[in-house]
Amino acid sequence: MPESLPGSREPSPELLTRLRRLADPDGFLPFDRYWEVVQFSQGVGYFEQASSPLGPGGDYYTAPSVTPLFGATLADQLLAYWHGLGRPAQFRFVELGAGDGTLAAELLDRLGEARPERAAWEYAIVERSDTLRQAAVERLRPVAERAGIEFAAPEVLGSEGPFRGVVLANELLDTLPARRLRRNEEGWEELGVVVDQGRATPASRPLARPVPLPQLPACPIGATLEFSPEAEGLLREVADHLEAGAALFLDYGAAESRWSSVPGDGTLVALRQHAVLADPLEAPGRCDLSCFVNFTRVRAAAVRAGLREREFRPQREALVAWGFVERLERALQAAPSEADRVRLRLLGKNLLLGFENFHVLELEATGEDLPPGA
Ligand SMILES: C[S@@+](CC[C@H](N)C(=O)[O-])C[C@H]1O[C@@H](n2cnc3c(N)ncnc32)[C@H](O)[C@@H]1O
Questions:
Q1: Does domain 13-323+360-365 have CATH number 3.40.50.12710?
Q2: pLDDT tens across 207-238, in order?
Q3: What are the structural domain ranges in the chain?
Q4: How far away, in angstroms, is 272 Cα from ligand 1 center?
Q5: Which residues lie below 8 Å from residue 279, measured CB to CB, with a gap of 6+?
Q6: pTM for the complete prediction?
């Protein structure tokens, strides 16, 4: 686990050793490989730190840490999927990238209230970080028990084989390692870093690795294109295991034209203690890294893998369609004081207007060969 140095931006010596070991012979690491090491490397990556990176004491907020109304609204939608499938007795909710379990706790409470007595539901979290997974498991076991819902924390999505249910991921795709390519006069180059004397500095090489389909778009010279092969692979994994049901991805991102139509440096952002770092390479392993999700490629990967797209829309629109405004209104009516009402209104406004560029991708696996309720 990285030592806890709240003020330090220096990478740990162990992290630097790993970066050097995984670099090409000339010292170059393509950006996605660098990202993989600094964010996820066992014991030393950013997500392995002792304290949660999420919420007020961390580096950034996600929607579940803004207000429980987010999870409550989402729970209604999860239940709508269950109804849509004919209310099967056996149903599995799988949350990918569950973080510290804040969203899961809210969902379990709500699902527990709605669960018919004889229904055998399971809620599974798949969380890559050992520290976050352990914290979430400790927190969620009693919540699940109260809700009468089986709880599991498998290492991978497909540990139980194909299933019927819902897959859910909030702000996971933007955190997965992204490749960054730049168009120059000769063609495409791969952006990455070189690690030297304890520092990571930007570097590039002519593109030498294959790019999975679809083909790269025509771009003006100087354009930077970002996409995550791992995010696209995750969509294939979901399609392989979700026999019938829905998959819901909530994340910030844009269509590929966001990158391909104009020259620019891309969307990479490093966050630390709720501030954007001027240099995203300045604190390897000690800040959050994220890129806009390339939704053009992610959506194409989902469809190629056999999932059907139900909806793709701004998160604000999805929340409104799922009853967020009515839920907020009910909470306002129940609020004990004017100060509570003001606080609730601010949180509601933050969720509807503050999560700019967030989208919801709703997919379904039709399971047409299964009898309803099976
Ligand atoms: C930005 S956080 C979001 C956490 C939570 N979903 C929320 O909304 O607060 C992304 C989470 O995904 C986890 N993660 C990253 N890659 C993963 C993977 N391949 N499988 C499962 N979890 C992953 C990270 O460890 C981190 O906890």
A1: yes
A2: 999 999 999 999 999 999 999 999 999 999 99
A3: 13-323+360-365
A4: 17
A5: 270
A6: 0.94
